[in-house]
């Protein structure tokens, strides 16, 4: 089992981030769905009084299936049978806290689980135990800092229109993010997303390799996704929550069409 806490500072308020995250995830879902692969949303509904992280929460519950197929890691395609790359995701979004559990019930069953707990907090990435981890968990946890402007990304992932170092928001005047950009951001426009990732893959001889691959993939996704949130700022900054929910409904309809008929697009997990 591996446990890492990714800390991702953003030049946004906590309230702004909620809108940007929801909008960018819908956009990214469209970019990664088509031709029988991608994201299938089965349920999206409010939940109330659910015990998460030893506290009662209310918010939005979603149940999704990720049909990976060709987007699965190359070395895993030789080990797992065809049709087994179907991952189920349950998510409880009680912003500013959220919890996501990903499993593979068809093949790995109880031998695989990926859990992501997130807390969104005003200020920089300097809160040591924002998710109230036990002493045992703190000993196992590794802290990883993600900088959306300065961390290197591969050439295949790079898109100029999603580059925080050259993007400048026409509507808010924010950006570009260069050098020690954290020091120049106003306090009321700085927040940090803390993401605690716990992964367990029980397969003798492969556990370490697969768990490390999953962690590296999560770090890559977190970096690219948060670059996207910031660089799409002008698209979502004036949206209300009602606007966001309407957009999500339209995206779900389009996802169903793309999953059945469209061409697969977007990032892979290679």
Automatic annotation (TrEMBL):
<protein>
    <recommendedName>
        <fullName>Phosphatidylinositol transfer protein N-terminal domain-containing protein</fullName>
    </recommendedName>
</protein>
<dbReference type="InterPro" id="IPR001666">
    <property type="entry name" value="PI_transfer"/>
</dbReference>
<dbReference type="GO" id="GO:0035091">
    <property type="term" value="F:phosphatidylinositol binding"/>
</dbReference>
<dbReference type="GO" id="GO:0071944">
    <property type="term" value="C:cell periphery"/>
</dbReference>
<dbReference type="GO" id="GO:0008526">
    <property type="term" value="F:phosphatidylinositol transfer activity"/>
</dbReference>
<dbReference type="Pfam" id="PF02121">
    <property type="entry name" value="IP_trans"/>
</dbReference>
<feature type="domain" description="Phosphatidylinositol transfer protein N-terminal">
    <location>
        <begin position="1"/>
        <end position="253"/>
    </location>
</feature>
<dbReference type="InterPro" id="IPR055261">
    <property type="entry name" value="PI_transfer_N"/>
</dbReference>
<dbReference type="GO" id="GO:0005737">
    <property type="term" value="C:cytoplasm"/>
</dbReference>
<dbReference type="GO" id="GO:0008525">
    <property type="term" value="F:phosphatidylcholine transporter activity"/>
</dbReference>
<dbReference type="GO" id="GO:0031210">
    <property type="term" value="F:phosphatidylcholine binding"/>
</dbReference>
<dbReference type="InterPro" id="IPR023393">
    <property type="entry name" value="START-like_dom_sf"/>
</dbReference>
